[in-house]
Protein 1
Amino acid sequence: MGTVLPFVAELADLERRTAAAKMLAEHVGAKDLLIFAPDEEVGALLPAPGFPQTLPGGREWREFVRRCAQEGRAQAELPYPDVATVLPASGIALRGGAVLVLLGGRPRDELVAQAVEALPLLAAAFRAERKATAGAGHAAAAVASTRQSEKLVARLTQLQGELQAALRELNEASRLKDEFLATLSHELRTPLNAIIGWAHVLQAGNLDRETTAKAIETIRRSAQSQNQLISDMLDVSRIVAGKLRLEVRPVELAPIIDATLDTVRPAAVAKAVNLVHEMEPAAGPVLGDPDRIQQVVWNLLSNAIKFTPTGGRVRVALTALASDLEVTVEDDGPGIDPEFLPHVFDRFRQADSSPSRSHGGLGLGLAIVRHLVELHGGSVRAHNREGGKGAVFSVRLPRHRLPAGGDVAHPEGAGSPSWIDDAPSLAGVRVLVVDDEEDARELVTTILTRCGAEVVVAHSASEGLATLQRRRPDVLLSDIEMPDEDGYSLIRKVRSLSGERGGLVPAAALTAYASTHDRAKALAAGFDIHVPKPVHPAELVAVVASLRASKLRG
């Protein structure tokens, strides 16, 4: 037994155990050896400290070691040191509950017997090491658990902060929504009150010419105010949906600014606000949508006039910079609250949204301005005047180098002639108007008959279909929303008719459903054109003339 003891003694040193096990294995004639010792905490045989703790084919090894402990001896083919290498294994149970496993080679029985007698001397060392390892593991686990707990507490604190911030944002959004709805109701009802009130006064009669003219002008102005509110809301809806589109071409800014000044001048005159404009000659064009650029300038000028006191001054300037054109609108009003300045271009935000506020509006105009300017590749900023009261809004748009012979778009000014002066003649054109609203039918009839058209009306889709086959109109104008049967159903039935019975009549959907989706739906149903309400008389006449011309060409 003395020949084995030096190697067994080497196994007592945990740091040298791997090398000592290899030497002992070779001494007894094996390729390698493992020792499994009882683990009281787990209640199973595990590799003793210093031996590989993870073995390939773990389930096979567990079953083999268990069988050795129960039967005293066992043999098997087991993967070691990896799944690709399989070695013959001989397992022997030792006193004290440990198991010796010899791997590969040709172990010599007399030396193996000596090792079996000597190895139980290490049982106490194995147990002490296992407890120490377990204790260190528990300590490490405790440290790791503490660190994990600290991380978890930090993450929970962070999530709580994020949740509170989200809750504050949600409450703020809810507050802004409530304020917006209240403001919207007020802004829509105010002009509606003037329209209804003056309509009743006109209906009562006995008004002199001056009062009648005042009533008509108030109704017109109030209706335009409502139309502007609705247009702003639709624009914001298109912006949110990403469906706002530009019709881009080279545009001169000076004529656009002049035309917009003509549009806002009546409001400025009413407040005795002096409009000053400074235009740099030959500033050059930008690439943009003239209608949308005019909308930007109109919003800024209207805002400036609204916040400028009576007798004040609003200045608009066009300046050519190195690569941009800059439009500046400056007023001498109270300026912008510094705390509100970062939110001045936010949707639905107003510096004063209280019932006692001095100025109306929905808080949409400047949000629309920013989006339109950014769609043009430009920028807009706002600041207060230095050394005095007033706000300054600056819009920068990239300059466009126009090729030789290029055409530039110019807007129509406010001084354009009345719509009737330039309206095309509709003499000899028979128009069928289908609408369940009497006021709508009368308005369209009046506009078209003033241009010489013969107008036939129908109160419903069914009546319209019958009238179309009987009177054979040149053009069909139909509302969409009608009781019992809508305009989509009407146009589908019309298009199902033969050409001789009126199935090819040019048709326009004249409707308050004004979204891009509504337009696509109307065209898909069979209408040739989609005309959203409210429609300007000149546009309505032009639509009828265009549809009539398309019929003649067809």
Note: The chain has a mean pLDDT of 83.
Protein 2
Amino acid sequence: MTSHRAEATKAASQPSGTALKFRFSDFEIDIARHELRRAGTVVHIEPQVFDLLVHLIRNRDRIVSKDELIDAIWQGRAVSEATLSSRISAARRALGDSGYGQSFIRTLHKRGFRFVGQVDDECSERLPAIASSDRFAAMAIETGPPKDGDPDQEWLPVDPADAMPAPASTAEPAWAAARESALLRSDRAADPAQAADRTRPRGQRRTARTLLLAVTVIGVVPSLVAAGWWLSPSRSTSIMSSPNDRVTLAGVESAGDRLKPPVRSIVVLPFANLSGDATQDYVADGITGSLTSDLARALPGISVVSRDAAFPYGGRGTDARQFGRALEVRYLLEGGVVIEGNRIRVNVQLVETKDGSQLWAERLDTERTGLLQVQDEIAGRVLRAIGLQVVDLEARRSLRERPDRAEPADLIMRGKAVLNRPSSPATMLDARDLFEQALKLQPSSADALAGVATTLVFEFLNGYYKTGNDKRLYRAGLLLDRALTIQPRHVMALKAKSALRRAQGKFDDAIAAAEAAIMENPGEPWAYKEIGLSTLYLGKLEQSLDWFAKAERIGPRDPGRWTWLDGRGHALILLGRDEEAVRALVHALDANPKNAFPHAFLAAAYAHLGRSDEAHAALTTYEQMRPGTRVSTFRSMAPVPLALTSQQYQQQRRRLNEGLRKAGMPE
């Protein structure tokens, strides 16, 4: 007699209907894109948490047991209840829910869980229902065996526009094929051998699964085409076929669907191990995994194709345009890893799939100290560079394609692009105007709220205005509270909160906010810089240099690089390392010539080194930018009032004042 658990697992593998989207409250789940959105904004969610949420929603008419969830999400692998509980908690957090409120996911003691939100389904007749674990394996399937007869050979999907279905006249009625396909899936779910399948080697399981899906999809796709042909206004269109034709699920879409431009999206193809040593594959796999999981957080508003969907396309060496059409993505990130002794070199490039053009390329070298450290460093450096490139490209694209009918996402992307320029009063005003336009259209946008707050905080910290600063910080605080209520782990809001707390002299709180931002996006150099500055004001100068160095490793070409170079120069002067301070401050001015403070710091460093002419020249430049400044008032122009800093820092700062006096700044 079949157990209730087995029946539930079988039912879960056969979701009724073909719902591709679920809507509830202000949320939307897009199965095809593997996305959760709130009010149109993508909410980052881990793949397992996404699958768990979808499973609960699909089975919302009943209680889902813990055992069933483990079977459905982990496919029978042994996991602890603590692991399941953490995924449930993550799903609730993504929905703004909690174990106390249980507005969407309700726990029933000793029985399981149930989704209790009001859900609207959106169905599509284009795709057959496919079990969660196989949804990407059917992306493209060969209709015939490989020429060499090897059943384990992997096949490359062709351009969907080139896929030609079989003649409609030879196809059986659609309902018959659909019925047989459903029976086939039912038999597979009920087959006791399926459990034994989990013990096979990974490659054999993937091959068997692919062959089974091939039978299923080949049975359904021609039938759907036949039904469409019989129902069409004109049946005179000829449909060609040949023995070597390949069928993709996109083959049943209309030509208009195929020609639609891809949405803002990116895929990370599996990085290649170029070392010639297969035992080192895990290094390339680890870098690929880190990039894929972190990109979604590094690029809010950009869809990231899951690793499962990208895996079959690794090592193909085929035109990026084919990948773009097959996966419906706009950008492709690929690379190779070379390992030689204790050195690791990663070559990476960003490609636009529309025309296959290379948008960015970089060679990254690092020491092989520890695998996790290597992954974090490489991923961080790539993520920041890619983020800057994609934001700029998308901002220019939206301005070109929709100059007079911008949506909130367009305005936010343009605002971020402006913020990524070297800071000045004009850039802050321009960025804020764009974010405020987005807020008028979408008042609940966490991106827009955080964007406006960021401009207000940086206007204060960079000393652009002598008046109105208290109002700026007050308004910024209110906006950030709203943004973090809507999206508690919003990276931009956490960064701005860290800067705000620094401006208020709450350095421990500033460090905590920056650490939270790093947890969400390890490739965010601004967060490392914020920890460095707060640590500096606590008087921990050597520690601050370590944080500035981390920011520099991740963002060696970052437009905000001047901020941590400025901080590094500041710390080095207080430590008496004046030659190093001069080098850091010169680089800071190269990165942003409009910043005034490095000129004053340079004047002090040169004076301590006995280089009087250079000290006077630096001081003259500073006084032209900030006329009337004296040693006694110099600190009043600084971003953090001296009284809010630690006693240790106040003592260390005396050396800077001595340098300014030597350079000729009046008392």
Note: The longest helix spans residues 371-401.
Protein 3
Amino acid sequence: MQIKQGSDPVLKDRIVFSPHAPQTNESSGGKSWLIGTLLIITGLLGSSFYFYPQILPYVEQLRKDHLSDNSTPTVVENNTVTQADTAANIADILQRKPTAEVATEAIPAKTVAEVKAVEEKPAKTVTGITPTPTKVEDKAKVVTETKPIEQKVIIAEKVEEKEPIIATAKPTLKEPVSPPPSSTTKVATSTVKTDTTLVDKTATSATESTPITKTEADTLLEKGLAQIASKNLTIPKGDNAYETYQALAKSDPTKAQQVLDGIMLWFFNESKNDIKLGKLIAPPRDNAVFFYEKAKALNPEHKGLPAHHDMVLQELNRIIEKQLKRGYISFPVKNNARATYQHLVKFAPNSRTTKNALKKIITGLNDIANKQLKKRHYTTPRGNNAYETYKIILNIDKDNRRAKANIQNLADKYYKFAYDKYKAQSYRSSLSFVNTGLKLVPNHRKLKNLKSSIRKASRDPQSALVSKANREISKGQLSSAYSTYKKLIQAKPNHAKAPGILSKIKKKFTSKARYAFRKKQLQQSLAYINEGLAMFPSHTELKKLKQEILASLSE
């Protein structure tokens, strides 16, 4: 093969030969033609398979229409009853009542001599297929051609000479099959004649749906459910779900139970929601315990009550445990274990959980009372004393023996205080302790007797001076006590209490002087002695003590 000379200066004057043959496009062109042909054939086949099912009904319909046009009407022998006449009668009946029972028009018995059924079984209606004319034995021949209908029609005759009989199609439960829009359906029916009755071989018609009327029970049920949705459960009077339930229970207990269950479920849900929100016992008329009690009052035997009861019980116990842990036993007022226990014992008085909670609360209260006793808070201050704590225990457990015994011990203490004051002739103070003790234990025998003694001593007109002198002596106000003593003997020189007061004043001077002497407070001791000798110049003990002090000072 020769190659044209190029621009290369080396090869421009040379002719180059290639050992390879030149390539052509003949093979590739042939392959492309074959592939294109195959694609066209494949497309045609695919289009045929796709459009064939859609075109087929129209082709079949054209064929049926052609066959229908070639059919000829048939005449019944001895009776001029044409196919067109029969079709007109049937079409007229169907137009009157297309979905109800269809009755054929009566054919006068005189015009029909005898009708014999060729086939023992009635012809079945087949949509889209035109049956061949039925052969008759030179007596009667009936072919009915109608427009597309969804009912089967029965034409029945009874051969009598007086009255015609109209046969009515019986309803069927099967839904009729609708024929194609443009097709005509031929329906062939036959009857079997006996001596006295006609037996229909085929009977079909459209089924009328009977409307379902609501009963009174259904109406009440809907009303009750609507009232629950509106939250009219027990109020207002005359328009609430519970009254509807009561009315419905008289006629239909099963449906009434649905209303009652709906009411109970509403109360249970409200109670659960309040527990989640912490509204267990407050606010009033909107808390978990309140809604549970309402549900229980409506139906004490409801199957959902026990589970909900346990849930509320455990939640109350949980709150008490939390309050005890924080030390909220009786305070603060609205958030303490004692107040919560009152709701618990009302809710479940015989529960083991309630009894265990009571023991824990009493133990905590006793601990508080012991601390108050150590601080001598017997009856005061108010709100923080042992007596009030023991009373709280008795309020939640009236038979608590330990609390009763502790209150008795407090009354005994007050008797001792009152008696000491009585001996000191401090009748007012003594009477005050007596009255306090009797508030704790009204029938305390010793306190009652002491109160009588105080009253007798109080009848003395000079008793006030005696009590004043005793108070001044106890406070160390000896000069004032001596002045009160003088007033007493001036009022009544032979007063029985006067010698005792004077003796107390002398002993008090001596004790104060000796106490200062032991403390090496010689000058202070000497001052007490001189004050006492000024009142009692012949006081022997004060004179001896004065000599000892002077000797010590000289040394």
Note: The radius of gyration is 63 Å.
